[in-house]
Design brief:
Layout (H helix, E strand, L loop, with lengths): L2 H11 L2 E6 L4 H6 L2 E3 L1 H8 L6 E5 L2 H10 L4 E3 L15 H10 L4 E5 L4 H5 L3 E3 L4 H6 L7 E4 L2 H11 L4 E2 L12 H10 L5 E3 L5 H6 L2 E2 L2 H8 L6 E5 L4 H8 L4 E4 L14 H10 L8 H17 L1
Parallel strand pairs: 1-2, 1-3, 3-4, 5-6, 5-7, 7-8, 9-10, 9-11, 11-12
Bound molecules: 1,3-dihydroxyacetonephosphate and iron/sulfur cluster (SF4).
């Protein structure tokens, strides 16, 4: 039996569903039951009928699935797969910031710990941050944590100013506007799509700013048959599979998130065999964090 057959056998025996983020290694995306961006995965997690969820992504994603499924077992095949951006703000730091701005509503990027979500009013993803922020009254003061880039992008789209936390994604921070200049001259005529976690000069130099799921939708039915993709390179696997006649060039080959690459077929096999590592969220945090996620899902 090869490793994929073994995984499928264990998966069936334990009534497990495998969810994967778009940045996962190609072979992990290929065995997953569902691959998507953070919003698609959060939505999917509200509609799971299996007893076990194997989450192929990073810690905050498995935590979100656990918050939405308190009666299911959520497994993270690589327990050390964290997100440095999510760890850039703690619950205590957010409480301090809120105390300084008592009238502000807190929007937290889904790339945050359960404790930070519990201290927030509304959760957002890169796919819906603008729509969620727009659902608040125009004169509402807004604190946005932890990603200063998604925060400034959202504020700009609304023509507003937010109170921003200085967090960022180290993988997207590596991308610069010079990479766009070089890519445009190497692949003239190819639209440049970048993620809103990129710094402002990169966003300004791009043709479109989109979540990873947004990129998958954008390229469908376009006349152009080549695109330059400015985000973590794992998304290229899905883009190529869904559009076999289109070329996709990474804006920066080195835009690789080491945490997203910690999951492998072997680790999925071990995780199903040993039923670990189980991700749980304490009840006193989970209930409040769920409110901010539900508030986001209600906007959409
Ligand atoms: P999306 O796939 O939701 O665009 O998120 C990107 C990301 O950085 C997840 O960690
Ligand atoms: Fe975190 Fe960036 Fe990796 Fe996404 S790509 S998990 S934001 S470090």
């Amino acid at each position: 039996m090869n490793i994929i057959e073994e995984i499928k056998k264990l998966q069936k025996a334990s009534d497990a569903v495998i969810l994967a983020h778009n940045y996962q290694p190609g072979e992990v995306q290929d065995i997953a039951d569902f691959t998507g961006d953070s919003l698609e995965l959060a939505r999917k997690a509200t509609d799971i009928h299996a007893a076990v969820i194997v989450f192929c992504g990073v810690h905050f994603m498995a935590e979100t699935a656990a918050i939405l499924n308190p009666d299911k077992t959520v497994l993270l095949p690589a327990p050390d797969a964290g997100c440095p951006m999510a760890d850039m703000i703690t619950g205590d730091q957010l409480r301090e910031l809120k105390a300084k701005h008592p009238d502000a509503k807190v929007l937290c990027y889904v790339n945050s710990t359960a404790e930070v979500k519990a201290e927030s009013d509304l959760c957002v993803t890169s796919a819906n941050a603008v729509a969620v922020a727009r659902s608040l009254p125009p004169d509402q003061q807004i604190i946005f944590v932890p990603d200063r880039h998604l925060g400034s992008y959202t504020a700009e789209k609304l023509g507003r100013e937010f109170i921003l936390w200085p967090g960022y994604c180290p993988t997207h921070a590596r991308i610069t506007e010079n990479h766009i200049l070089a890519a445009r001259s190497a692949f003239p005529g190819s639209p440049v799509l970048v993620h809103p976690e990129c710094p402002k000069p990169v966003r300004d130099a791009a043709d479109a700013v989109l979540s990873t799921g947004g990129m998958c939708r954008y390229v469908k039915g376009r006349e152009e048959k080549a695109f330059i993709i400015g985000t973590e390179t794992g998304i290229l696997h899905r883009l190529k599979q869904e559009n076999p006649d289109t070329l996709f060039h990474p804006l920066l080959e080195q835009a690789v998130c080491p945490n997203m690459k910690k999951i492998s077929l072997e680790k999925i096999l071990w995780c199903l065999r040993d039923m670990r590592t189980v991700i749980t969220v304490p009840e006193n945090v989970s209930g409040r964090a769920r409110r901010s996620i539900d508030a986001m899902l209600a906007v959409n």
